[in-house]
Amino acid sequence: MSLLDLKLIRDLRALKSQAAAVAIVMACGLAMMIMTRSLIVSLETTRDAYYRDNHFAQIFARLKRAPNSVAAQIAAIPGVATVQTGIALSVTLDLPGVIEPATGLIQSLPEQGELTLNRLHLRAGRILVGRESTGEILVGEAFAQANQLQPGDEMAAVLYGRRQRFRIAGIVLSPEFIFEAPPGASLPNNKTYGVFWMPYKELARASNLDGAFNQLSLRLVPGASEPAVIEALDHILRPYGGRGAYGRTSHPSHTRLRDEISILNGLSIGFPLVFLSVAAFMTNAVMSRQITLQREQIAILKAFGFSNGEIGRHYLKFSIVIVASGTALGVLGGVFLGERLVELYHIFFRFPELKFQLASSVVVLAVLVSSIAAIIGVAGSVRAAVRLAPAEAMRPEPPSSYRPALVERLGLGRLFTVTFRMALRNIERRPVRASLTVGALALATGILVVPNAFRDGIGHVLDYQWDLIQRQTVMVSLIEPSPARALADFKALPGVILAEPLRGAAVELRAGNQFRRLSITGLPAQAELYRVLDSMGRQITLPPEGIVISKKLAEVLGVKIGETLLVRGLEGKRVEFSVPVTGLSEDFAGTAAYMEIGALNRHLGEGDRINAAYLTVGAGQWNEFLQAMKASPRAGSVVVKNKIRQGFRETTAQSIGLLQQIYLTFAAVVAFGIVYNSARISLSERQRELATLRVIGFTRGEVASVLVGELVMLTLIALPCGLLIGSGFARVILMTVNTEFVRLPLILTAQNYAFAVLVVSAASVVSALLACRRLDQLDLVGVLKARD
Amino acid sequence: MVHALAGVDLECRAGELVVVLGASGSGKSTLLNLLGGLDTPTSGSLFYRGWDLAGADEAGLTRYRREAVGFVFQFYNLIPSLTARENVALITEIASDPMSPEEALHMVGLGARMDHFPAQLSGGEQQRVAIARAIAKRPAVLMCDEPTGALDVSTGKTVLEAIERINRELGTLTLIITHNSVMAEMADRVLTLSDGHITGEKHNRTRAAASTLVW
To answer: Would you say residue B107 lies in a domain?
Structure first.
């Protein structure tokens, strides 16, 4: 080992706590980067392999009913490789010991062999094949786990109005339900929604679809045009009540996963950069102080004949050691957090196996990025060190010159104590360092604002959706549109206080070239239980003629109030009509269109019909109501509001909870690292000054307040800046979540801000106290004897 | 175990100007540390007006330094970010019965340069600011450690004149620790230290004026 390296080791030992602080901040950035990039790689490779191995379809379609023979016609569309037809049916479930009903989607298994597309992955029990078995069912894993169902357990379902008992044969996963939730949901609610499979025959018999199908999936030959196939498919299915085919980009589970990956993508770049720039700044601060302290040593080395290159390399090695330890820590941290996050992702996304894969290219990238950060950080001070002429370096640095601070020049100096003025002038003398410290502390504060803004945004959406818009106790959907008098039957159920009708109709809304397929919701003009609200939170009265659509939908279609939309029915009589847009509603999940129920029914031309009812049920008769509901033949599904809401709460708490912990830790580390390092550097630069104060009679506390006064001031400046930055971060990140499927409002609360301020202040105080402990070790006498 | 000081028996009175002479390693600094409340002796007793300093703890020593002692160092030890006036005000803000910073600076002849920062002052001026800082709280004891050590002769003399004037006008017990034997002439009493012992004690019948000293 060269003597310079020996010097390096000893110098590092003396600098260990500061070097550690830098390495840890760097490790946080790297850990976050490795965690998120690896998660993206894990999710993408796992998803792709799953799709490939289980033959996930590329085009999907739902329709009312088509004879099985139509499948051959579809197979003949140029570009189609495989066709799979089947039945899909909504069901209400009756679970043993659970009073509230759950709902789900039940799909058919082929009559012969296994599924060719969207093949199931067996988790437990056995798969159902061909015509065998009666009364058996396969259950999706998420629902089974949430409700603690095992193969052999029994459950009851109301299928097409008929209550049937089933035994669970197996627990399965499907590439169609990686995100096992109703279409459009942004969070799963596995206790109340599940997916199921059962043999075709049984399902066909139960739904009067024998010899027919109501859903299909396709796989294309390589190079085939998806839009062309969709067009041809829609053409074939039109007479059979086709609701419009769509590709993977509109598939609910696929898009939910894709959105998640795009959020991770954003996180994998932004935050790590923040941490690494802070680390670069800290490296720079530590190294320039180190080089100032070693001026004379550098001069001696140069006088002895060491070259500039050798000396430059020697100091660069400091940062190499820091980068190396930061990287090692970062990789470990990234893997640890990544593994925990993968467990969390398992709640949302169901794969046969989602393993955390450390993306080695990411580690290389991480090392590269942090090395660059450290080299940028240290380059300036090293350059200054090697430029120093030996004779000049042997002399002590000239005394630092000061001048009154800006506020004093403005004539406000008399308002401050002498020690306060010291702090002000010190800050002003090194404006770059002060602003970088403020910047780093502000970033730490800002980082903390983000997860809470997410939490509050989700909370707001839930409250908005469930308190302001939907005020029912339950929503009951009917198996098929029924005459309006069905509402009277619901009103007659035990405990029902208020019942309001809903008419849904699958349509295509078109404005010029832009179109979207969705369901128009027909409601009473001034409904009590389902209120259409504008962006000011006021209820919009649905007009006798006209349509109210989501703000987001208006944006997507490019229409304004007063303009006309072409509505094309996708089922029933397939009517076509034009309506003016009369209002824009504010909502956060999916997109919606509303019409007054009478107007909608008039346009649809099928008489006064309803598909669902919103009910308020008195708490006293809740159980009787549920019993009656489960037995009701008309009810297709029953959705209990509070149940769903609670499910959302739990899932959000889990996911946001972990993210919050991670952000909290990282922000605290940055705040701690920055304050500790600044205090240590300041202590080193000013030890003579501080020792002098001690000798002339300042108490330890008074000297400590001189030392940290400057930092307190910087922190005070940083906190409001940090809140601003954090609000900006939150806004940008929420913008990436602003899709047609999910939108989160930016909700910034005083509690959120207070929390961020508290954490950063606490971290700063603790680190400042730690640094102040070094004041006791000040060599009062020695410092006074020595010249700077 | 090496004793930096041993068998020292010393009593100083208010208003006295004592010069302590000694080569390096003689124990001068240790004596200053003990008398100035920077350290406590391993054995023996040390009193300031009945206040036991040998048994004092950290807080007690700080209080002693704060209330009773003014320090003047070889390298001035001014706070570079504070002007002359503010360096003095630093003390007057924490002292119980201080003179004003302006008064203290006038006493050392720096009335005209009060708003200059240390980097804008000469070495002699900086040292005089340090003296003003030391005396502004009207200390009972003024400790001067090689006060002219970093200065040329003529500047050194102006500093000594300032110290002499303080001692005379305020009646402050003044201890000057130095290896420069010429300063002995301005003292009431001269102590010589070597190897941790007081090897000589001399009373001057008349004190020479600082302005007449030559070295």
So the answer is: no
Other C-beta atoms closer than 10 Å to the C-beta of A146 total 20
Q: How many domains, chain B?
A: 1
> Across the interface, which of B73, B90, B119 has its CB nearest the CB of A400?
B119
What DSSP string describes A87-138?
-EEEEEEE-TT--S-EEEEEEEEPSSSS-SSS--EEEEE----TT--SSEEE
- pLDDT on residue A595: 96
Q: Do B66 and A697 touch (CB under 8 A)?
A: yes
Residue that is written with structure tokens 């049937």 in the block: A164
CATH label of the domain that carries residue B184: 3.40.50.300
Judging contacts by C-beta atoms under 8 Å, the chain B residues touching residue A690 are none
For residues B100-125, average pLDDT: 91
Q: What is the pLDDT of residue A185?
A: 66
Structural domain contains residue B48 = yes
Residue A390: CB partners within 8 Å, gap ≥ 6?
A: A299, A300, A302, A303
What is the predicted pLDDT for the residue at A151? 94
For residue A252, count other CB atoms closer than 10 A to its CB: 18
Residue A141: per-residue pLDDT: 94
Nearest to A696 among B80, B91, B120 (CB): B91
Q: What is the model's pLDDT at position A111?
A: 86
Cα–Cα separations (whole angstroms), residue A226 to A566, A621, B48: 25, 52, 98
Positions in chain A whose pLDDT score sits under 50: 788
> Above pLDDT 90, what percent of chain B?
50
Closest residue in chain B to residue A694, using alpha carbons only:
B62
Q: Is residue B92 part of a domain?
A: no
pLDDT of residue A750: 94
Alpha-carbon span B28 to B26, nearest angstrom = 6
Q: What is the mean pLDDT of residues B21-36?
A: 88
- Is residue B111 included in any domain, yes or no? no
Name the residue range of residue B153's domain.
17-79+140-212
**pLDDT for residue A376:** 76
Q: Residue ranges of the domains in chain A?
A: 56-255, 430-469+641-788, 474-617
Provide, as residue numbers in chain B, all residues whose Cβ is less than 8 Å from the Cβ of A695. 36, 38, 65, 71, 77
Q: Cα–Cα distances in Å, from A9 out to A5, A20, A200, A287? A: 6, 14, 73, 15
Residues in B touching A416 (Cβ below 8 Å)? none
Q: Is A758 exposed, middle or buried (0-12, 13-18, 19+ CB in 10 A)?
A: exposed
ipTM over 0.90: no
Of B81, B86, B118, the CB nearest to A426: B81
**Distance (Å) from the C-alpha of residue A414 to the closest C-alpha of chain B?**
11
Which residue from A537, A555, A553, A544 is spatially nearest to A582, judged by alpha carbons?
A544
Cα angle: A704, vertex A710, A711; to 5 degrees? 85
What is the length of chain B? 215
pLDDT tier at B13, thresholds 50, 70, 90: very high
